[in-house]
Amino acid sequence: AMRLESPQFQALFTPGLRGVAELFEKKNYELRIAGGAVRDLLSGIKPEDVDFATTATPAEMKEMFTSAGVRLINNKGEKHGTITARLHEQNFEITTLRIDVVTDGRHAEVEFTTDWEKDAERRDLTVNSMFLGLDGMLYDFFNGYEDLKNKKIRFVGQASERIQEDYLRILRYFRFYGRIAEKPGDHEPSTLQAIKENAKGLAGISGERIWVELKKILLGNHVNHLVRLMYELDVAQYIGLPLNGNLEEFDRVAKNVQNLCPKPMTVLTSLLKTKDDILNLDLRLKISKEEKNHGLFLVKHRQDLTKAVGPEPLKPYQDFIMDSREANTNSRICELLKYQGEEDLLREMQQWTLPSFPVSGHDLRKMGVSSGKEIGTALQQLREEWKKSGYHMDKEELLSCLKKL
């Protein structure tokens, strides 16, 4: 048996958690930390979210919390056995142990249990199937800790059974592989076979759920290996990726953006060859309007908008921003520079502030230009001169330029 006493674990014991723990102890209900938080704590990481599991049923929890005057919030999770209690300005999501009675590859009908091993058995991966007592004691029925130490990603029990309970687990496998595995290609052949045989099940999973997982895969490690694997195992076609994805470009861009914190769509667009690929992706994954426009922007400009030869390599990008009337062009250009692997230019671009054009229609009226049409034309000509000067000319220089125009 192993007992955890790390600072990350100790840091969880806020007044809120102590209060919750006392209530469960009084009633003799068992309460343990579950799933991903256990994995993070064992890796020395402070978990962002902490989920709890208990032997108490939702009805017992409601009765216990209500009697103690503890506020309960959003009861959406109740039919799946989850109660959310709010104590000392902190939310605690606590789920009754359960077993899946009926699964259709998307949803499960559950039955409550008090058997910790049965609950662990219905979880997807061994590294996500552990529990941690509030005394630091680890409960690990499927060697999850061993797998975590060896950086192995394995399904709990039979891979094909776990996948058929929820086909999205195929993508979760890839995501956690990119998060935990040390090197690409370290898969159990039987797991890959199970993924290939069940890939078609992803066709029935909603685009929104797929996109949530895919975004995380795109920003994880070994992304080029994992995306190639998606093609080899017939997964790609069921999750909206084009049949003839540009894997060479994808490899190149995946290397370019390493360490540059790209948006997921910046990475994914390298796989897409045309505007239609983006539109088809949108139909399947229901990406946001901003993500769709970002993809279309990259497809359109990734080849024609490149750095200038000479002393001002950033100038074409700056000109593009100055000519654009859209608010987010600056951030799109930064993503384009990441895509192109222009790390130095990206740094320069991030420090560049948009200069404001120093001449107004008012200045021209003072000089005797009165008609609106003439003012518009003159301003446009001066803007071009200003652009040629690298945005350095001031108001005086530009107005004296006007006399020559």
From TrEMBL:
Cofactors: Mg(2+)
Family (UniProt): Belongs to the tRNA nucleotidyltransferase/poly(A) polymerase family.
GO CC, any one term: mitochondrion
Residue ranges of every copy of the tRNA nucleotidyltransferase/poly(A) polymerase RNA and SrmB- binding domain listed in the record: 188-239
MF-aspect GO terms: metal ion binding; nucleotide binding; nucleotidyltransferase activity; tRNA binding
Domain Poly A polymerase head: 31-154
The protein's name: TRNT1 nucleotidyltransferase
Biological process, per Gene Ontology: mitochondrial tRNA 3'-end processing; tRNA 3'-terminal CCA addition
InterPro entries registered for this protein in UniProt: Bact_CCA-adding_enz_type3_sf, NT_sf, PolA_pol_head_dom, PolyA_RNA-bd
